[in-house]
Write a structure and sequence with these properties.
The chain is mainly alpha-helical and 126 residues long. It has four helices and no strands.
Amino acid sequence: MNDFHPSILFAIAQETLGFWLYVGLAALALVLVLYGLSLVRGRRLRGAPLRYAALVGAVAGVAAMAIAPAATQASFAHLLAAIDFILLGAIGISVFVGATFALTPVFALLGFGRSEEGRVSLTSAQ
């Protein structure tokens, strides 16, 4: 473990995922920009935007669990061991969390819910 460095993890991810690593990093950057934009505009991130995002995330998680075996050229008949079902559940949960995280600022910016009273200022008040 003396030779371990975090850049090694990046190299492994780059070798494994290839182009999709950069697509994922760009999507993460876009989501962070949307969060910042929604905070600067004074939009609420809790309440209605979070509920709608969680609802869409739950549907996406169930859909991912239904699609995952076919995407790996398997079927539900091939799921035999407990670890298969645990990993299928982990896929559904991770898609739910990711979709909820990504869609909350989108629904806030689309106007679901109310605006906050005070806006976030990027500079000091003068």
